[in-house]
Amino acid sequence: MGCCSMWLYRMLCFLFAFLLFQVNSSSISLLSSRPPQSCPSEHSSALIQFKNSLSLVSDSEICRDSYPKTESWNQSIDCCSWEGVTCHSLTGRVIGLDLSCSLLEGNLPSNSSLFLLQDLQWLNLAHLNFIDSQIPSEFSKLRSLTHLNLSYTGFHGSIPSSLGNLTKITFLHLKSNNFEGQIPDVFGNFKKLIMLDFSFNNFHGLFPSSVFNLTGVTDMAFNNNHLGGPLPYNISGLSNLQRLFLSANLLDGRVPGWLFSLPVNLALLDLSSNNLSGNIESCMLSKLRNLQELDLSNNSLLSLSSCSNDVNSTFPKLNILCFSSCNIHQFPSFLRASETLSHLDLSNNKIQGSISKLEAEGLESLTYLDLSFNLLTNVDQFPGKTLQTIDLRSNSLQGPLPTPPHSIHHLLISENELTGEIPSGFCNITFPQVLDMSKNNLSGIIPRCLANYRFLSVLNLRMNNFDGKIPTMCTDEGSWLRSLNLNNNQLEGPIPRSLVNCSELEFLDLGNNNLNDSFPRWLGVLSSLQILVLRSNKFHGPVPNLRSTSFFTSLRVIDISQNEFNGHLPTKFFQNLKGMKDIHEQPAGPYYIGELYYKDSMILTIKGLERTFEKILDIFTTIDFSSNQFEGQVPEVVGELKDLLVLNFSHNSLTGQIPSSLGNLLALESLDLSSNKIEGRIPMQLTNLIFLAVLNLSQNNLVGPIPRGYQFNTFTNDSYIGNLQLCGFPLSKECGESEGTEAPPSIFDEDDDNGRALTWKFAMMGYGCGLVLGLSMGYIVFTAGKPAWLVKIIQRAPNQKVRRQIQKN
Ligand SMILES: *[C@@H]1O[C@H](CO)[C@@H](O)[C@H](O)[C@H]1NC(C)=O
Ligand SMILES: *[C@@H]1O[C@H](CO)[C@@H](O)[C@H](O)[C@H]1NC(C)=O
Ligand SMILES: *[C@@H]1O[C@H](CO)[C@@H](O)[C@H](O)[C@H]1NC(C)=O
Ligand SMILES: *[C@@H]1O[C@H](CO)[C@@H](O)[C@H](O)[C@H]1NC(C)=O
Ligand SMILES: *[C@@H]1O[C@H](CO)[C@@H](O)[C@H](O)[C@H]1NC(C)=O
Ligand SMILES: *[C@@H]1O[C@H](CO)[C@@H](O)[C@H](O)[C@H]1NC(C)=O
Ligand SMILES: *[C@@H]1O[C@H](CO)[C@@H](O)[C@H](O)[C@H]1NC(C)=O
Ligand SMILES: *[C@@H]1O[C@H](CO)[C@@H](O)[C@H](O)[C@H]1NC(C)=O
Ligand SMILES: *[C@@H]1O[C@H](CO)[C@@H](O)[C@H](O)[C@H]1NC(C)=O
Ligand SMILES: *[C@@H]1O[C@H](CO)[C@@H](O)[C@H](O)[C@H]1NC(C)=O
Ligand SMILES: *[C@@H]1O[C@H](CO)[C@@H](O)[C@H](O)[C@H]1NC(C)=O
Ligand SMILES: *[C@@H]1O[C@H](CO)[C@@H](O)[C@H](O)[C@H]1NC(C)=O
Asked: Which residue in 242, 390, 596, 711 has the fewest CB atoms around it within 10 Å?
């Protein structure tokens, strides 16, 4: 389903259920006003047989209000009073059965006693789990059926054409099963059909053309299948259509003109994610006087333009218009006459040039405007006066930053070519929540007002030319600031101490500036702080050991590389980092930190390369203290940070030995201790690190044999160069007798690929597939160049969490 339809769609389902309920209850009230007839014994025994052919399950994930309706069925009581059963008021025969969400599962064989209930008019079996069942053609015996709901019933296989015998059907719901094959072209028989839902199945083949002959139908959903072919040029039906969902199919050809001249109240049209082509003209659109929601997104050949003889198009009810990822070249200024349009998504098109004052006028009700990923060069004025969200990321906007309307909540204007200072109008916004102006060429000082909007949650000015000091932050008590990104500017001076009052701060990136300060130990009280980046500044002095054990407890990413820090590595500091010791993954899997319209991003050096993390999983962990002047030993306690993925202490003056405790960092994927003065042997325990993809121990004073086994069989010379007294594979220098070689701990031949994969599999099972796969999967999301073996294992693993992860993207 496309970007906008969910809301109306739910309304539709509600309406459908409501109607069904109405029909049921009216017949119940009839029942109570006359002498009640009791249910025929062949009906009660058919019902009991049907109940007995199924079994109860304890839980259903999808239904919110599931309960076992059949539990209370008692054969010594008239079946007309059974839960879910409705009888005819005069004859007492069973005419309605609603067992939706009643926690049943089983088979539905063709001789099921259900098909003996031939008076059934309403049958709702939604969410009954008919595992391994095909839909029996015996449904066609239920000739009286007007309402049939088999949504979410787990049926698979094709739909028998005998279903076409249900000539009285008005409501037909077959949503979300595993149906496949062609949809039989039997709709010509369904003269009374009002609503049909075939969505979220695997139907293939051509779109059933007889659908277009239906005259009474108001709601039609075929979205999320594999239906192909063009839509017909000419149709004779659909004269009462109100909502049409055809998104996420393989439809091609032109959008037919009849869609815009239906004699009807079409309110919702979703044709998104197909391969439709053609041009939608303003005067066609304006014929749909009742249209509220239109989604034509993701049809790469479809364009939108105003009519050549531009009559004053009006769209009296249009509320949501989604036209993202199509082939639009101009801002549809004809929409300015619309007084009702609130949500306009034109992202990912080829819209060029500027939005002039004239074009931006009107659009009085617009609150959401997405023009991201286009080719705009100039915006004289933002459309609308009540705009709350504007997304202009990734255009070619030049010149000064335009002043947004006071009403703005979310301004996303990163990746443009804007210059000059932040205009004073930015101090006049009523309720800003997300301001992302990163990746431009803005300059001057950061206005103090920005830093002190109480409800501002995100301020991102990364990659600009701001200079001067960081302003005093969070002066208002109860500041909501969650994310502050000032990376890659020309900022100077100390970190303002007032940051300590930003109690919600999770993300702080001040890297790549000229800041000059000692280590901000006082930030340790910010109990939500997860990410702290100070890299490449002029920070100096030691990183102090903190007496309080409640400092920096949520920290997961700390990058203080390329500064002038000195002294010993802080043992107590590492001990405090609880966020790297016991990550408790959310039940729904890891999530990206950020909010609805904004995800935090950062640049780190991982595995020797600078990488941009456009999104950051809440389970990503790294410590980078490289390129400073730290001395002394690597503390043992670092080995307690068992969820650590990346550890970099390179380019310092560290001495002593590599602590064997590093072998406990079982999640570690990258270890860099290069360019120090570390001595002694490489501890055997490091071979435990089965996810280690990068090891750099070069330019130290290490001696003796290189351990063998697992990942150590994959590292090359580069990992060890500049240690003159190391020996053994992969170096050409062989170890002498006295040095001895340690045998690999693998029981498999190290050259046997299958054996290797098997060992890894064992290891992964050994400490929880979920977490390991979660981590590595997330990691792949933002890094390239994963070792092939890991990618293979992940692809092979049939793990739910991994799939959920992909869906979230
Ligand atoms: C059919 O079942 C689905 C899933 O529970 C529900 O959303 C829909 O409203 C039902 N339709 C009717 C007519 O009850
Ligand atoms: C069925 O109903 C009868 C009569 O009301 C009652 O005696 C009996 O206990 C009920 N049986 C069950 C299993 O509820
Ligand atoms: C349905 O047919 C199967 C054999 O195909 C049989 O075992 C079963 O008893 C029959 N069930 C009914 C309700 O007739
Ligand atoms: C249903 O329709 C088919 C034709 O599609 C017909 O051959 C069959 O006899 C009908 N079945 C019933 C049970 O009426
Ligand atoms: C649609 O209806 C017309 C007559 O109104 C008929 O000629 C045509 O065959 C029908 N098409 C389908 C596919 O049923
Ligand atoms: C479309 O159908 C109408 C009536 O069914 C007919 O008058 C018209 O000529 C048809 N148009 C085309 C292009 O076939
Ligand atoms: C766009 O449509 C293609 C198929 O035409 C589909 O694979 C893709 O997921 C869609 N993209 C979005 C963002 O819906
Ligand atoms: C979409 O249609 C065009 C021709 O209209 C065709 O070249 C292209 O392959 C189609 N794309 C898909 C994904 O089917
Ligand atoms: C369009 O609107 C303008 C101003 O509202 C009006 O002067 C003009 O006559 C309209 N044009 C048409 C073709 O209706
Ligand atoms: C700020 O808004 C007020 C009215 O809300 C207006 O008078 C003033 O000119 C605005 N200031 C700037 C700099 O836009
Ligand atoms: C950014 O603006 C400065 C002047 O403020 C200019 O010298 C520089 O070339 C600009 N950089 C880019 C990448 O446009
Ligand atoms: C933090 O806020 C408190 C109360 O609003 C204030 O007294 C204190 O001076 C602030 N701290 C800094 C460093 O600004």
From this structure: 596
- The model's confidence at residue 785, banded by pLDDT at 50, 70 and 90, is very low
Q: Measuring CA to CA, which residue among 145, 159, 236, 270 is closest to residue 204?
A: 159
- Nearest Cα neighbor of 612 from 373, 369, 376, 414 is 414
How big is the chain by its Cα radius of gyration, in Å? 33
Tokens 């009523």 -> residue: 430
Name the DSSP letter for residue 407: T
Query: 10 Å Cβ neighbour count for 57?
Result: 15
State the fold for domain 518-734: 3.80.10
Question: E strands, 657-776, where?
Answer: 670-672, 679-680, 694-696, 701-705, 725-727
Q: Do strands 694-696 and 507-509 pair parallel, antiparallel, or not at all (unpaired)?
A: unpaired
Going by C-alpha positions, the residue among 431, 318, 434, 304 that lies closest to residue 366 is: 318
Nearest CA to 288 out of 311, 309, 318 is that of 318
The per-residue pLDDT for 201 is 96
pLDDT tens digits, residue range 1-25? 445 444 444 444 444 444 444 444 4
Q: Residues lining ligand 12, judged by CB closer than 6 Å? A: 477, 497-498, 500-501
Q: Is 739 in the pocket of ligand 8 (CB under 6 A)?
A: no
Q: 670-672 and 602-606 as β-strands: parallel, antiparallel, unpaired?
A: unpaired
Question: Taking 50 as the threshold, does the pLDDT of residue 531 lie above it?
Answer: yes
Asked if residue 289 lies in contact with residue 318, where contact means CB atoms within 8 angstroms, the answer is no
Counting ligands in written order, which one lies closest to the CA of residue 75?
2
Our CA angle for 788, 695, 545, nearest 5°, is 130
Question: 679, 702 in Cβ contact below 8 A?
Answer: yes
Other CB atoms within a 10 A radius of the CB of residue 414 amount to 23
Query: Quick one: what percent of the chain has pLDDT higher than 70?
Result: 85
Spatial CB neighbours of 25, under 8 Å, sequence gap ≥ 6: none
Q: Which ligand is nearest to the CA of 13?
A: 1
Mean pLDDT of 353-369: 88
Q: Which residue has the tokens 């059949």?
A: 70
Mutate to test the pocket of ligand 10, among 428, 429, 450 (most ligand atoms within 8 A of CB): 428
- Closest by Cα among 355, 297, 351, 354 to 326: 297
State how beta strands 483-485 and 434-436 pair: unpaired
Ligand 11 atom showing the smallest separation from residue 419 Cα: 2
Mutate to test the pocket of ligand 3, among 111, 112, 116, 117 (most ligand atoms within 8 A of CB): 111
Helix (H) or strand (E) holding 13: helix 6-33
H-helix or E-strand containing 795?
helix 788-796
Could you state, in order of their start, the residue ranges of all structural domains in the chain? 518-734, 756-808
DSSP letter at 153? S
Alpha-carbon gap, residue 733 to 727, rounded angstroms = 5
Residue 798, CA distances (Å) to 72, 578, 781, 789 in order:
39, 31, 18, 16
Q: Select the more confidently predicted residue: 132 or 387.
A: 387
H or E segment and range at residue 43: helix 41-52
Name all residues whose Cβ lies below 6 A of ligand 3. 49, 109, 111, 113
Tell me the average pLDDT across 234-246: 92
**Residue given tokens 């990364």 in the structure block:** 462
CA 73 – CA 55 distance, rounded (Å): 14
Residues 6+ apart with CB under 8 A from 199: 1, 175, 176, 221, 222, 223, 224, 225, 245
pLDDT band at residue 533, thresholds of 50, 70 and 90? very high
Query: Model confidence over 733-760: pLDDT tens digits?
Result: 888 766 555 444 332 333 333 322 222 2
Q: Determine the Cα–Cα distance for residues 564 and 298; give it in Å rounded to an integer.
A: 50
Q: How far is CA 438 from CA 369, 396, 458, in A?
A: 19, 14, 12
Distance 273 CA to ligand 7 centre (A): 5
The whole-angstrom separation of Cα 301 and Cα 291 is: 23
Q: Report pTM.
A: 0.83
pLDDT for 574 beyond 70: yes
